[in-house]
Amino acid sequence: MNDESPDSNIPAALPVTLFAVCLSAAPSIVYGEMAVRGIIVCAGLSLFLRTSRRVALLLLCCALGLSTGLRHAVGEEQSSAIVESVGGERFVRIEAPLTREWREAPNETFLLRAPSFRMTAPSAEHFDQPLLLVLATEPVPFGDESLIRAEGFLRLSEKGRYTLHVKSTRLISYSGGLQRWDPAFWNRRLSQEIFRYSASEPRAVALVQAVALGQAERLPEEARQDYLRGGIYHLLVFSGMQIAIAAAAMTMILRLIGAAAVADWMLLLLSVIAPRFAGDEPSVSRAAWMIGLYAVSRLLGRPTSVANLLFVSALIRLLAFPGELTNPGFALTYGATGGLILVGKQIAARIDNRPARALAWSAGAELATTPLTLYFFNHYVIGGSVLTLIVGPVITGMLAVSALALAALWVHPPAIPLLLRIVGALDEITSVASGYFGVQLNLCGLAAAPETTLLIASVISFLFLVSLARRPHILLRVVLLMLPVLGSLWVTHRGATVEHPQIDLLDVGQGEAILLRNGSGAILVDSGGRLNDERFGRMVLLPLLLDRGILRLDAIALSHPDPDHCGGFPAVLEHLTVGELWLSRRHLGHPCTETLITKAEAAGTLVIFVESVDVLRRSGIELRPLVPRLRFKRSPANNSSVVYHVTMGDRSILLTGDIEKDAERLYSEEEPDRIRADVLKVAHHGSQSSSTDLFLDAVRPRMAVISCGLNNRFGHPHPSVVERLLERTPLVCSTHRSGSLRLLFVNGTIRVLREIDTPR
Question: Is 343 a residue whose pLDDT tops 60?
Answer without folding.
Answer: yes
